[in-house]
Specification:
The protein is α+β, with helices and mostly antiparallel strands. The chain contains 8 helices and 19 strands. It has 3 domains: about 130 residues, Gyrase A, domain 2, CATH 3.30.1360.120; about 120 residues, Aminomethyltransferase beta-barrel domains (Alpha-Beta Plaits, 2-Layer Sandwich), CATH 3.30.70; about 70 residues, Elongation Factor Tu (Ef-tu), domain 3, CATH 2.40.30.
């Protein structure tokens, strides 16, 4: 049986379409994906992302340990900073991508993907042997809302009375509310400005109710969360990152700090970076309105050169686009085809970010 978040009854009451995702019964949409997508692009939308997992690493060697398992470099990272990166296998394959908040000296708050919670928790605990740290699995305690869109700052300050205007992108802070600790970060997964708020189930339910009563936000499901992140060129674990798709193959080398002394997967990733990879992720813009989907073949001169990882008819720019894992010989501007059922549709290799915030 799938798990349910603390807001499940609210989603049902609002008539949401509920489907399994990452081991949870989650809202996919309330009205329509297009309406919810546009609410985030132009106003403010709210997502229940309480299905995400949380792990807290603390102790004298917390920084050393995070650097050991994380591709980015947290050396000297100030309290209140948020950093994105990956955890990798020795062969460079991706275990998960994650955002890490430094919430206090020697204390790191890690957010992980719902489908990977058990795997990540087991792996982190295994790697922690020999380090002077404490690893706490806190997914049953923390719940999370994502408040996203150009009006998000006003909504958070005026409706929730959480001061946030001073937070810069990828920073966070903790606040005391109703005798409990709240974490708020200026982060998101939509390509828009926004915030992610973490708290207990009771706090998140109360926060959701205040937001809905305000009339200033639209509840949004995971359907538009995917269209929004895809337009903005943000990867989804299981599609653009996986045990067989490394950060280098995914074009995420800027989040891999090779000048660190060591981290798990460094040798394999450095070899890929210096010697090249056989396949890499590329964007494809179709010349037709046909919609490419995960797994559809990509062809060049009649020969298959890869396959689609994600594809959509983009809502914000009205184009059919895909991201695909293809032969690394393909360059920007190259002409390819995508096989959609029995027909082939011409397209052009482009950058993976299809939408830029004005």
């Amino acid at each position: 049986m799938n798990k349910r978040t603390c807001l499940y009854d609210r989603h049902v009451a609002l008539g949401a379409l509920i489907q399994p995702f990452g081991g949870f019964d989650m809202p996919i949409q309330y009205t329509s994906i297009i309406e919810e997508h546009n609410a985030v692009r132009h106003h403010c939308g709210v997502f229940d992302v309480s299905h995400m997992g949380e792990i807290i690493v603390s102790g004298p060697e917390a920084e050393k340990f995070i650097n050991h398992i994380f591709t980015n470099d947290v050396t000297g990272m100030p309290v209140g900073r948020v950093m994105y990166g990956m955890m990798c296998q020795e062969d460079g394959g991706t275990i998960d991508d994650t955002c890490i908040c430094k919430t206090a000296p020697n204390r790191f708050f890690m957010t992980i993907n719902a489908a990977n919670i058990d795997k990540d928790n087991d792996w982190v605990r295994k790697q922690s042997e020999g380090f002077n740290i404490v690893v706490c699995y806190k997914s049953d305690y923390w719940n999370q809302l994502a408040i996203q869109g150009p009006e998000a700052e006003e909504v958070v300050e005026q409706v929730l009375h959480l001061p946030c205007h001073e937070l810069k992108y990828y920073t966070c802070k903790t606040l005391e509310r109703f005798d409990e600790t709240i974490l708020i970060s200026r982060t998101g997964y939509t390509g828009e400005d926004g915030f992610e708020v973490y708290g207990t189930a009771a706090y998140i339910r109360d926060t959701w109710d205040k937001l809905m009563a305000s009339g200033r936000v639209k509840p949004c499901g995971l359907g538009c969360r995917d269209t929004l992140r895809f337009e903005a060129g943000l990867p989804l674990y299981g599609d653009e990152l996986s045990a067989t798709i490394t950060p280098v193959m995914a074009g995420l080398s800027k989040f891999v700090k090779f000048d660190k002394p060591e981290f798990i997967g460094k040798e394999a990733l450095l070899r890929q970076k210096t010697e090249g990879v056989a396949q890499r992720l590329r964007g494809i813009e179709l010349k037709d309105k046909a919609v490419p989907r995960h797994g559809y073949p990509v062809l060049k001169d009649g020969q298959q050169v890869g396959e689609v990882t994600t594809g959509y008819r983009l809502i914000s720019v009205d184009k059919s686009c895909a991201v695909a894992l293809v032969d690394s010989s393909l360059q920007l501007g190259d002409e390819v085809e995508i096989q959609i059922r029995k027909k082939r549709f011409p397209g052009t290799i482009v950058k993976k970010r299809f939408y830029q915030r004005p």
